[in-house]
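Here comes an entry:

___
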Amino acid sequence: MAIVLVLWQLSTALGLVDVSFSSNPLRIAAAEGKLFGSGEIYPALGATGLELLWGLGITFVLGIPVGLVLGRSKILHDMTEPMVNILYSVPYVMFLPIIIFWFGIDNTSRVIVIVWAAILPLIINITAGVRNLDRDYTRVATVFCTPRLKFFYTIALPATLPYILAGVRLAVGRALVGAIVAELFLASQGLGYFVQTQTSNFNMDSAMAGIVLLAVLALLLNWAVRLVERRFTHWAGAQ
């Protein structure tokens, strides 16, 4: 990373790259200071953060139970697998006109895009985890006549936690992409809209500063998920 930044700075200093279209690390750092100092970036950060909070919250509340149920029920899994694969394979951007037509261009549409982007990899991972559940667990549960609901939260949920958190990591990354895509097409606020506006105005320093903030946000979210993985699934790596 340091080598890339140094080469980037040198290429603009030597005139090999036009700074008006690419900025450089020092100008980006100055733009970051200006954006935070003036408070201009805070509304965009707040809008994107709120959308992600709602989108990921809905994704986890819906995705985890659905994945557990689909993994446990062979009939439901066979019925829904083609539809899940189709929705996962088709770019959700293609459905933006339909989403706009049905829900408008307010926060609801942006949250729907985020949920659509994030929930499918979560469901797929959890379903795979439940279907690969150790058969000894299910035999013991059957012998002791464990109720179905109790089986989910006492056996299936803890045993598939590595799969769940792997799905959460994928969901977080796709949710951020979904949030930016939604802001590019459906918003008048947020980091995606901010970067688009600054680029349209040829203010590349601020635009690149916004992109750096997006990268930092993605790294922080990924780091948080990894902390949770190390805290709750350390036993999985020891097996």
Notes: The CA atoms of residues 28 and 208 lie 6 Å apart. The mean pLDDT is 85. DSSP finds 13 helices and no strands in the chain.
